[in-house]
Design a protein that fits this description.
Blueprint lengths: L8 E6 L6 H13 L4 E4 L11 H11 L4 E4 L2 E2 L5 H15 L5 E4 L4 H6 L7 H19 L7 E4 L4 E5 L11 E3 L4 H10 L2 E2 L10 H15 L8 E6 L15 H15 L3 E5 L3 H26 L9 H4 L16 E3 L6 H4 L11 E4 L3 H12 L5 E4 L15 E4 L6 E5 L4 E5 L4 H8 L4 E2 L10 H7 L6 H4 L6 E7 L5 E4 L5 H10 L5 E8 L1 E2 L3 E9 L3 H14 L4 E8 L8 E8 L4 H12 L4 E9 L20 E6 L4 H13 L2 E8 L21 E7 L4 H15 L14 H6 L2 H14 L16
Parallel strand pairs: 1-2, 1-11, 2-3, 4-5, 5-8, 8-9, 9-10, 10-11, 13-15, 14-15
Antiparallel strand pairs: 6-7, 12-13, 16-17, 17-21, 18-22, 19-20, 19-21, 23-25, 23-26, 24-25, 24-28, 27-29, 28-29
């Protein structure tokens, strides 16, 4: 007996006839409605009575929601593999991860040649399919770097760019009968897809043996390779030959194929709706039950198998096999890992990424993570400039799935935000009510990070920091306890979470009182930054003297290499009084030589709108940050000198005065309530020492404090810049109460021991 323990799947093998184009589409929809798992279509591109299979798959993907889709099998000689790779990945992304690739080396060569494709010998066709698989996998591998080269005799890549990556691990299933093709499957494919009608007794066993031997020789576990089988037959009252007979006969036969020949997927070739329904309703459930019962008795391990290559990528000190069953875990080598490993600016290599979907799952994930070796990072959105929401070799707890945005109280505009939501989603959800929450300058920023650090945004001078409007948090502390805190319940923890939350626990949701915000005027201005000293001084003075409705951020880019020094101001006038807006914006235009200007009246969601997260950061960022009480001529001169030194390629100034400074310094753990500007510098060179030296000289006479989210200097004295002494004493006391073992030690660690 050969049972590979694969989860059983059932599907249909349909004819893509074009006499009635919708007929095969309706059969695909029926397949899904009946509860089956897979829809496949023949692929004969030279057959004029058939629809084109890939076009049909795309159409069916739009008509269905759950079933997986595949050609059975696609004619590779007529479908260039590089194009096929991108088509499959694209359809997989559009369909939510429902595409598989059944591939064939080609048959009916007279018809293929008649379509203008050069004839291949059987051996050449196998070689071409072998190379095609390499091309497809290479283009899907977006985790690699640099252009791609595949030097084959039939298929090549000569510097192609990678991507797109599919939404899930697309299975490459190969239709094959002969030993050479079977050995190819063992080395490279994810599945074997023969047709029962072409098999002789014993062929399944012999084929499995050949595949398994080849897999073992390639360092693979044979269980990695799914065994599929195209089947055919009729449901009849009386037993007959083959599968022809009553459903009970089918159940017995398919159960034997699953337990004795390792078949994990049965694909029924039929275009009859009644046969599909009977197969789905009477055969598939009974086979699943029979196989499950036998596996329970025999102790056969069931479920997916991790490849030897993937196992080799596991980090030392992490007990992967003990991850809580209710928590999704993504490891190096998994398709989803590439999209999760990095942040906006830092390319990470965590040993495992945990993806809880509920607060109890956060508790389970955190408890397990505490027992593992290596650092623990917590992520909400991953856009933070500091790059601390990933790591190398440790555990990353990603709460991105906790992304609900719910109105709790219409009268007080109280809104509950999941920590994994993005501010773009929040803004879009609140816009129809005319509400907004000040929240940075980019819609991809996560709620959890910004709402526990401060929240300096483009409504800041009008409405203050994000944390100033927080009324409650739910947080999981280091011991796994869930706390709901506010001004009455654990007020000291509530105080600490507003400014130092990353040191105190994993926030799962936050409740905030939104503001009534009419349409705002959003303006962008591009300046010639050849004289950065004059520009920053005039811009800062104009913003400082402007009404609180105006908040502006200024981004300056050093010139060099033939590039002109440029600056861009992003400005929001938080009012729909366009007449007053024009007056103030005209003053701001006087900050420097204007190269471009645009302004529009828009809801706040038009400023901070929803964006897709595609984080693939590079080297760890080198940034420095400081809080400037006010812009002086000396500070402007030193900032201009830093930008011109080559040590800083980019500089950002964010206005943070106004309403944020109305709050008492001891009201929250973010105590910086008299400064007018946040200044950040990004290294123009790869080494950090140059920027550190230059910034340290600048900061001493001008800066007073720093904003954690923009700082990457790991030196201990930065903690003293972030938190004044009295604030730091209170935070250390909180750490001794809620995190005495210093579990949360990655985000500017506050040692409870002092």
């Amino acid at each position: 007996m050969t049972d590979y323990g694969h989860e059983l799947r059932f599907g249909t093998f349909l004819t893509p006839q074009n006499a009635d184009p919708q007929a095969s589409v309706e059969l695909a929809v029926l397949t899904e409605d009946a509860g089956l798992d897979l829809v496949t279509f023949q692929d004969h591109p030279y057959q004029p009575s058939f629809l084109d299979t890939w076009t049909l798959l795309s159409y069916v993907a739009a008509r269905t929601r759950r079933v997986h889709l595949s050609g059975n099998v696609l004619n590779v000689p007529m479908r260039p593999p590089a194009v096929l790779a991108r088509a499959a990945a694209s359809l997989d992304l559009l369909s939510g991860g429902r595409v598989e690739l059944g591939l064939g080396a080609g048959a009916f060569w007279d018809a293929i040649e008649a379509m203008g494709v050069p004839r291949l010998t059987p051996g050449e066709a196998v070689d071409a399919l072998d190379e095609a698989i390499d091309v497809i996998r290479a283009l899907w591998d977006t985790d690699g770097r640099g252009p791609l080269r595949v030097d084959g005799d039939h298929h090549r890549l000569a510097g192609a760019k990678r991507g797109p990556a599919p939404a899930h691990d697309i299975g490459i299933w190969v239709g094959a009968l002969k030993p050479r093709m079977l050995r190819l499957i063992g080395r490279k494919a994810d599945g074997w897809l023969p047709s029962l009608a072409y098999l002789q007794p014993g062929d399944l066993g012999r084929g499995n043996a050949t595949i398994d031997e080849s897999a073992a020789g390639a360092g693979r576990d044979p269980r990695e390779i799914r065994r599929l089988l195209n089947i055919g037959g009729r449901f009849t009252p009386a037993p007959g030959g083959g599968l022809d007979g009553p459903p009970e006969q089918w159940v017995d036969a398919l159960t034997r194929y699953a337990l004795e020949d390792g078949i994990g997927t049965f694909v029924l070739a039929t275009d009859d709706p009644g046969t599909i329904r009977t197969f789905a309703e009477q055969v598939a459930p009974a086979v699943r039950d029979a196989v499950a019962a036998e596996r329970a008795t025999s102790g056969t391990a069931a479920g997916p198998v991790r490849s030897a290559a993937a196992l080799a990528k596991r980090a030392d000190g992490i007990a992967y096999d003990t991850v809580p069953a209710d928590v999704t875990a993504v490891e190096p080598g998994d398709r989803a890992y590439t999209a999760l490993r990095s942040t906006y600016m830092r390319r990470g290599a965590p040993g495992v990424v945990l993806l809880p979907r509920t607060t109890p799952q956060v508790v389970d994930a955190l408890g397990w993570a505490r027992e593992q070796h290596g650092p623990l990072a917590v992520r909400s959105g991953g856009h933070g400039i500091s790059g601390r929401s990933t790591n190398d070799g440790g555990v990353l707890l990603d709460v991105g799935a906790l992304d609900e945005v719910t109105v709790v109280d219409e009268a007080t505009r109280r809104v509950r935000l999941g920590a994994g939501a993005t501010w773009g989603k929040v803004a879009a959800t609140l816009a129809p009510r005319g509400w907004a929450i000040s929240s940075g300058d980019y819609g991809g920023v996560g709620v959890g990070g910004l709402a526990t650090t401060g929240g300096i945004g483009l409504l800041g001078r009008s409405y203050g920091l994000t944390i100033d409007h927080v009324v409650a948090y739910e947080v999981v502390t280091a011991d796994g306890t869930v706390h709901v805190v506010d001004a009455q319940r654990e007020p000291e923890l509530f105080w600490g979470l507003r400014g130092a939350g990353g040191n105190l626990g994993v926030v799962t949701w936050v409740e905030i009182e939104a503001a009534e915000v009419p349409d705002v005027v959003y303006a962008t201005m591009t300046f010639d930054a050849s004289d950065p000293v004059r520009l920053v001084e005039r811009w800062s003075r104009t913003v400082r003297d402007a009404p609180r409705q105006l908040t502006s951020f200024l981004h300056l880019q050093a010139g060099g290499g033939g590039r002109q020094p440029l600056a861009q101001a992003m400005t929001v006038w938080a009012d729909d009084d366009t007449t007053s807006a024009v007056t103030v914006l005209e003053e701001l235009l006087g900050a420097g030589p204007v190269l471009d200007q645009r302004a529009s009246l828009t809801p706040y969601s038009g400023v901070v709108g929803p964006v897709a997260k595609h984080h693939d950061g590079g080297a760890p960022p080198v940034t420095r940050s400081g809080l400037l009480p006010t812009m002086t001529p000396a500070a402007a001169a030193d900032l201009g000198a830093l930008l011109g030194s080559g040590e800083a390629g980019l500089m950002q100034l964010r206005a943070t005065g106004g309403a944020g400074n109305d709050v008492a310094p001891d009201a929250t753990a973010y105590a910086h309530r008299h400064q007018e500007l946040v200044v950040s510098a990004f290294a123009g060179r790869t080494r950090r020492a140059g920027l550190d030296d230059a910034w340290d000289r600048l900061a001493h006479p001008h800066m007073d404090g720093l904003y954690l989210s923009f700082e990457t200097d790991p030196r201990a004295e930065r903690l003293l810049d972030a938190f004044p002494p009295l604030t730091l004493d209170r935070l250390r006391a909180l750490k001794r109460t809620y995190d005495p073992d210093h579990v949360f030690d990655q985000n500017f660690p506050i040692d409870p021991r002092g």
